[in-house]
Amino acid sequence: MTATAPREEQLWSRCAGCASLLYRKRLRRNLDVCPECGEHARLGAPERLRQLVDPGSLRLLPDRLPEADPLDFVDVLPYPHRLTAARASTGLAEGVVCATATIGGHPAALAVMDFRFLGGSLGCAVGELITRAAERALDDRTPLVLITASGGARMQEGALSLMQMATVSQAIAALREAGLLTVSVLTDPTYGGVAASFATNTDLVLAESGARMGFAGPRVIRQITGRALPEGFQTADFLLRHGQVDMVVQRRSLRGRLMALLAATRAGGPARSPVPRQEPASRRERLADDGAALARPADPAAEGDADTPEAGDTPAVRDAWDTVRMARHPGRPTTLDYLDSVFDGFVELHGDRLGADCPAIVGGVARLAGRHVMVIGHQKGHTTAELVARNFGMASPAGHRKALRLMRLAARLGLPVVTLVDTPGADPGVSAEEQGQAAAIAENILTLTVLPTPVLAVITGEGGSGGALALAVADRVLMLENAVYSVISPEGCAAILWPDRSAAPQAARALRLTAPDLRRLGVVDEVVSEPSSAAHDDPAETAHRLRATLLANLLPLLDVPPAMLVRLRRQRFRRFGANRVGARAGLR
Questions:
Q1: What is the pLDDT of residue 578?
Q2: Which helix (H) or strand (E) holds 31?
Q3: Which DSSP string do the residues of 205-244 spell out, in sequence order?
Q4: 180-192: per-residue pLDDT in tens?
């Protein structure tokens, strides 16, 4: 190669769509859209901002956060090494750039994700930065514009990255309550936890031409279903045909579309906020402490040590992979089993009122020690026939919408909500994507952040990714001793970060997905001990312990006024920002 080769490579670029060799300056003048075939090349966050905002109006928001490796995660490389490499290659501090600016003279807060930085993955720092941008929009009473580009939640931060879906969603909920516009622009690609939260739960969802969006990626869907995918599957035009976006916009028209939308909302003027402005930090922390006291079980002795399961049996220390296998055991009690043994008088309610009834979600009204509650849970089954009939507990969009309907009904009737989580994840099939799986999960998460009634979630078996979180944004999150809760399955994590799926046991350990690990990280509030062997060996005793723990956690919540309940729930998830996580990691 000659000495001029690097310069030649900078002068020319080959289109990924039609393979045409394009003069780089011409391509840049055309906003990185191929003039031959219209292929929209991916943009970094700085270039995206240059294209959208008014010259001289950009004010970057602070992006320096405490260094945190909350899981001490190592695959073939330590996580800090991956972060260092990403920062060196992109020149960015993290996978999102946040700013305030004007677009056609209209002020807005912006959060622009950058796929070059670890695949635009959603970690604690990214969630914190986007949440701060939303809080800045609330303070300034301006719209929030999100530009998404992500492969999903960041595996190296485990369940803490999963929590960011709720943290950002509740910040969007606060803007919605204040009457402030939120807009997301889907760019290529937008998948996983980002698609199933803030990318699709904004007021308006635009898709850039050529963008792809979905809950599960095409490769995962093909592997799981063994089916060929329809032409144009998950593309912007596919999303428009299936009613999942408001419009598809060519890049050259995007700035103009945003100007028109921002102008319309400014002309109408935002409604007066029905909620008080954000408290100062010290006040927020005091309220969070008050909330922890309010939600604490009536019997402090039942709380147990922070690093161990509840008092009672002394559990054997299991390897994380052994716990995964235990959580998946076909004999493990299911939601229907618990409805029969923990609750009384269960009356099942069916249907999403839009045309389907998903068998992977069961729900209805029941009694707990004489108190009526709404119980919603994943249902797997014990036999092969039951598992197949219930889709292995993997809910379809109809299942998530059924759960949403029952949550809202509970709020109207003043009933507490108890959710029982046991799923490998949401249904990754073609039909689920066609029916808006990501948006269905996102709406559940958003609704739970504002539901004005007590919510208790119990991870009873597998807590798999966004499908689990769709039922687990709660005032108190409980977890059975041999359950697991993770951003991704160990097999999926191994397939991506290790040479092959045989590293699943190693990935399970790295993900910190067991109940004691998650209790230490603050994701889980209380661990429910199982009999000395496991729940499936003594279901009656397990049910007895779960019933007692549910009552101990529910009773204090019944006396909390709805407005405070919602505020404290939001603060529970707000604490998963990078500052708190960094401090927690530093204490280990």
A1: 63
A2: none
A3: EEEETT-BEESS-HHHHHHHH--PPPTTTTBHHHHHHTT-
A4: 889 999 999 999 9
